[in-house]
Design goal:
2 domains, homotetramer, alpha/beta, elongated, glycolysis (chains A, B, C, D), four-stranded parallel sheet, fructose-6-phosphate binding (chains A, B, C, D), 16% strand, Rossmann fold
Chain lengths: 341, 341, 341, 341
């Protein structure tokens, strides 16, 4: 059996641990050979491969990033892209393909699967917003980085009588903001699932000062204020930071400062949340995802992806990954709301 | 409503986060008053209380330990112990008691509950061996400490051609060993659920050297060799380190060295696994346990304890905690076994 | 002996360790009483004090921030400010004042000392740019935070073929950039001591891509390009982030992206560098500064500040702190330059 | 120019950073070729070499251990050992040798240098006990690991009313114990430079309990009690843990428990102090040592080793390393003594 492996989409701590789990399990237990495809879908599209054997995965467990590289190349948008992938897989005598990625990467995987390619998926999203799995690897590491930043801002906030705004990842779902905000003891948590009223945020901030303590506001980079508060000409930048002058966190910081008169500092965590050594939990989860992806290949369960339920690793249809995303339930958001005051 | 709170049993990162969650939720949303009992069951037994209000819980979220103190005092073994507790609760006009603790602490809670005391439990075990909940707080922190230690031993192992043995917590269940061992890339993982054969461990160790790499062995402190390998006169010490000369990890290290002739170093992590700032996950889980314990009090659901299922916090009967413990399934142990080789 | 203590200027990890060192040494060895002044010079100016005894400093060693608070209030710019301070010190029966702060705080201390107030200084600057001492506390912690961020960016850079720009503290001196840049293996390090040519930076960046690796650029927030490269209307923001649209790091990131066509991400570390638990080195240094400040008071060596030379703590004239700042020697900058290529 | 490189003695965080600094500086600035010798002096003794070029050192900066391996092989104790080394160096056409190691490794280097071999040394000792340099790399990382352990023990100590003993490295000098003990807020610090009286330690411990707080005792593994307290038959184990039943820390823990009746736990940090990613300071120092070792080779300054004075890297005679070791001055030990009480 020859199995191709690729990693697509954004960087995410734990990708190397998945790759290592796949290769060690496959080689040791089933004698598989592996073909590494470089830079996500670009690899099978252009036939760009790399050696993927036991020595290649030595020592990569604690390392962030992916030895296979990644990209956002979308073969579905390229004339004849999917056909070229199928031809290249055949040319490399690849019997099955393990795709590690998020919504987009697994969406392509799903289409190839429907067209008869033997595919097993491994879900990946730092934002933890994928249906069909309790947790995804990378999320715990990102929450840890964000929580450490809140811890650090606390001491500055205490000494300086200043508002601190921290922008964390969370394009469509506020999981990182909610977990890190609760773990770090933030006073206000703003998420994409619930539009916020800048005036109300300012009132919270002032209430905190009244009880003699500096407030910390955590905001997901996909959060938005209610209609009309964000001026047209000041459109915040998108996920890739390219369209506007400010991120939503920077905008909020300026609004708080001008509306309350309180000195406000904003920190945008950015890519530091996606890099570095994965946490113990992420390495554990990623390794087990890798092992179980090979088991799915061995069982010929094409068109599935691995998923986690408590301590169990299950297989669910690939389509689960591309259905609607998993957002923070308003019930949970309200539950943690006790700490806004 | 006046609510007593106590923490019993061993130390565990996240206890303060539970206490803070309880007090902030109870005071802000329901106007409760709280009575802190000192040192586990010793507090209500001797009527030893401490102030437990909003200022008392300020800043304790990221701190290990418990501001209430803890002990292993067992009122069930003291003549009239339970009666004295009931009298003291009445004397302090306490309407309900929130007990944070493991098997023993919640066992007493269960008995008092049966005798009509209004009790809500919060499960606590660093070993993660409690039924009725996916995870308990403190476990993730301990796994993190153990994984970091394995990371550190790896580099020494690589440079020095030596066997490294790491003893981690796990009296009755090997969860920490399995999680940290997999996350850290250990070569052998030994747990209480499965007796090990020292000869087989030595063969693994030698096989690792054959592929030119130094082996790392992770052993839970409750793991034991098969019948006959542990000499009578060399009985390993118990959990509290007092009965024998060696811990099981130290014994194993000496056996490996004498049987294989390979220099072997043993590190016993001990209490460093139970202290320090809780991880982001543990703070999140502990805070939500605290909030939901207050909700259980508010709902009058006596005799229950809070528990976690994915992102949901549920209530299960207190008795769940004292039923048989949750051990590592052999299926999981075998799954991760690929990395033994 | 009654001794006042104050902390002025920006936040800095280790302030609490100094305070604790002062109080424990003073109370235990010399029976001193202490008066804590709140928020830097605002405290003695307005007579705002707080209790400062052994219980007040319990547990603060590992904590960032300052229990005394801090501010940038400048009594020299307030009509009769210095006189009011002297009156308040007399009113509180304070025999000597220990001032913990940077250039500005110690500049005021120097003037009060010249006017006969018994003053001992403790130097503080996260940027490590103070003359008269090998190191200042807080610097090692900031370098650690910046280095960890570079480590994290490396893995993203490797996976994604992108330029990463990291802006770190360093208003007038590039010590943090040089230390963290070297420790983290950055490819370009830009500091205030040497104006940089954007074109040359772009050529370095392109050269890195040519050897198949993504470049990391570390820039101190006080670094500037050579004359004419920074457009008038795009003036970068000042230290407090308020005058312009971009920080220098953000500006550089945009320039690199537009000039090289390579996707570029910028992370501004900001206040996370000043907060959080101080590193072991900073706690050690800060504690010894505190102990030795009390020895200086005991010896009546007014007008001096404590300073570090290897393992020795010395006393130097307060004026040392306010002389020209300690910048990175061009020789050292050139030495580490090997790693630019 | 062909330059050999070897690393000898115990493991130490930063060795890889030195190697990387040497190779990048040598190749980029002077076009040197390098020969890596494996496992300390065993390499040149047996002619065992490995490739050492730019790709070989890629990514090793943040990694502990040494890619060259290390050993305690002593060619001076092998018949004709030094002659064989000289022959092998000539055979490999090695013009100069950079030796990274401690007292023993540099002692051999010194002898070879006297016999005409072109040698430059880089000092290495985790214990920081080498003369002729302010600091050695690896020390800061070890102090960080020990301080984090003390932080963790504090929370357990607070909750449990127990004595905690922590044994850290320090065979002949107590630098790690003093730095980590002060940084962590230990109550008693015991070092090899000053024999301790077990009775006095017990009195300190009891005094701590009297002020309602659990004591933490830090002891260097080379510390010893005053004459007569250590029973003959209970001789503590040596540095390599092989001669006796207990380490000195374990012995002390048992003594405290039996003499005071207070429950006592001992943690022996062991090899976790020598492994793992080096701290930012150690990476900076190690990289600069590497760069400057190449400068010393370029300048033909044979028989010297690099050394650190504040921010300057100097060259001192190799013999400095093998003169008497640098111990903790009693004055410093007394200074920090304020915190014993």
């Amino acid at each position: 059996m020859r199995v191709g492996v690729l990693t697509g989409g954004g960087d995410c701590p734990g990708l190397n641990a998945v790759i290592r789990g796949i290769v060690r399990k496959g080689v040791q237990d089933y004698g598989y050979e592996f073909v590494g495809y470089r830079d996500g879908w670009r690899g099978p599209l252009e036939g760009d491969t790399t050696v993927l054997d036991i020595p290649a995965v030595r020592g990569i467990l604690p390392r962030g990033g992916t030895i296979l590289g990644t990209s956002r190349v979308n073969p579905a948008q390229i004339e004849g892209g999917l056909e070229r992938i199928k031809r290249n897989l055949a040319h490399h005598m690849v019997d099955a393909l393990i795709c590690i990625g998020g919504e987009y990467t697994l969406g392509i995987a799903q289409r190839l699967s429907e067209e008869g390619v033997n595919i097993v998926g491994v879900p990946k999203t730092t934002d933890n917003d994928l249906n069909g799995t309790d947790f995804t690897f990378g999320f715990d590491t990102a929450v840890g980085v964000a929580t450490e930043a809140i811890d650090r801002l606390h001491t500055t906030a205490e000494s300086h009588h200043r508002v601190q705004v921290l922008e964390v990842m969370g394009r469509h779902a506020g999981w990182i903001a909610v977990h890190a905000g609760l773990a770090g003891g933030a006073n206000v948590i703003l998420i994409p699932e619930q539009k916020f009223d800048v005036e109300q945020v300012c009132r919270y901030v002032e209430r905190r000062f009244a009880v003699n303590y500096s407030p910390i506001v955590v905001i997901a980079d996909g959060a938005l204020p209610v209609e009309g508060q964000l001026p047209e000409e000041d459109g915040t930048r998108d996920f890739f930071g390219r369209t506007g002058s400010y991120s939503i966190g920077e905008w909020l910081g300026k609004e708080i400062e001008s509306r309350t008169g309180k000195e406000t500092r904003t920190t945008v965590l950015g890519h530091t949340q996606r890099g570095g050594s994965p946490s113990a939990f992420d390495r554990y989860l990623a390794t087990r995802f890798g092992i179980n992806a090979v088991e799915a290949v061995h069982a010929g369960e094409w068109g599935t992806m691995v998923s986690m339920r408590a301590e169990e690793i299950l297989r669910v249809p690939l389509a689960e990954a591309t259905k609607e995303i998993k957002t923070v339930p308003l019930e949970l958001y309200r539950e943690v709301g006790v700490f806004f005051g």
